[in-house]
Structures are given as C-alpha cells and as structure tokens.
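[Primary structure, fold]
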Amino acid sequence: MAHSRFAARQGLRVLLACTLPLGLAACGQDLTGTSASSSRDALYFNERASGLPPLYLNETYSAPIEVAGGVGPYTVRVTGGTLPPGVDLSGQTLKGKPTKSGTYSFTLEVTDSTLSSRSKTYAMTVQELPPLSLALTLPTGEIRGETRIPVTITAPRGARAARLGWDLPAGVTVTRVQPGEQGGLLFWRQQGTRLTVDLGFRAVPRTGARVALVSVKPAKAVTLSAPVLAYEARDGAGKVLAQKLFPDEQKKLDDQKAAEQKAAQPATAPAGTAPTSPAPKTDAPTPTNPPVTPPPGTPPTEPPTPGPGGGK
C-alpha cells in the first residue's frame, strides 16, 4: 500500500511538471507563439520604393494596388478624394486613360477577410507625355574592364521597333548586346567606333523599361560621359514615332534641304537693279528710209552752169 501511494505521488509530480511552463523543456516540447495577434503581419499597402507609375495624358494606364499582411482575400475601395478623370479602380488595379492634366488626391481603403482595414492617401499628377527617346545609363568615372550599359526607353507610345546608334570612344569594343526586360528581337553590329542596335518588341514596353544591355570593353581606362547617340522608333505599321540623327547625318540632311530650296527659287537681280524685260522678237525685215520727194509746185532744180573757160 505504501509503495502504491509513493508511486502515485511520483506520477503526480511528473504530470504537474509537464503541465507547468517551466517543465515543458523537460518533457521534450518546444514553446512557440501561436496567438492570433502574432500569427500574421499587420495589414499594409505593399508599394515599391518609386510608388505608383506616372500618368500621362491620353495614354493607357494600369497599376496594381499591392497589399500584404492580414488575411486574404482583400477588398480595395475609394473612400475619399477624386481619381484622375478617365481612371477607375477595378478590383485591386487602377486602370484607364487619363483625359485631363492636373494633380489629383484620393484615399484608398483595403479590408481583409477578418475585417481589418488600412487606408492610404495618394497624390498623382497627370502630365503631358514627354518625347520618345532612347538613352544609356552610364557609370560615373572611368571604366577599366568589361562593363554592361543598360539602354532604356522613355515614353514609348506605340513603339514596336527601335534602332539605337552610339559613337563609342576610340579603343572601346562591344563584346555583346543582350535583350532587355521584355525580350524581343535584337541585332547589332559595330563598324569602327559606331555601334548600331536594332530592337523589336513583342509588346509596347513601359516607360523607363530597360530594352537592351550593351557590354563594352575598353583598351585602356576611359570615361563614357556625354555619349553621341542617334535613335529611331516605329509603331507596328512602320510609322516613324521619333527620330534623332547623328550630328554628321543631320548636317548632311540640312545641306541637302537647303540646296533643294535654293534650286526651287527663281533667279533674282542684284539689289538696287530694276528688272528689265527682254525685247520681243519679230521676223519683219528692218525698215529702210524711202527716197525724198520734193513737195508739189517746187521747180525742178537746174543743173549747175559751167564756169568760164568751159566748152566752146
């Protein structure tokens, strides 16, 4: 009997030890947080560092409202302010085509499945679309080894093909050219110091997209600042959307236009000289002076009388 009571007391001690927080380790169990407050992150708007993409007048716009934390699914709605005219909130995406320039402020509220909510106010400016252009993102300072140079496009509009020309510094060789973020066709060639890159896009790229990556290798340390560039962009029908020529090509084109304009202008007399009209041409013979006839009643003229000594 005494042995049984002792065993019971020992079993009770073990049971109590296993049910107390301080004894969990002795029972071979790990303590982890499982409370509702620590099982998930708080609901928040998950934006990129640059925020929402810019809006341009009469250009198609689409930007997702990214949300994280909480418990999905999420519901996003406009609770205040004014969206840019032509832009609506569809699900979790702002989309449309802005029809009026200006700055607009609005508030969005996101709610998750547990009815937790979070609000954020946005200020967005609709502006005129800048000119279409291609540009290089160059490193600062000198380069000494192989370096990759991103090529970006601004305001692509409906561009489906583009050509970039770059006059490289002497001694710089292009080792390869890779497609950009959206892939597409790409051909390139280097003749002397001039590089030409032809690009084709499967879809119209977004503004600021990297459309190519050019790898260059200098023969010696060189700075790539102030590049001399030329570019051209066309839409799907082949229409030229933008064009910039090399300085030598632009001068040649300007000289040709000036020569054509000069040739099309009529010849002009020197300043201060009155214009003269050419005499009309005729086939009539040159008139001659008729013989002079004395008026009627005039006595005929006698021949002169010979002087003395003349005749018999």
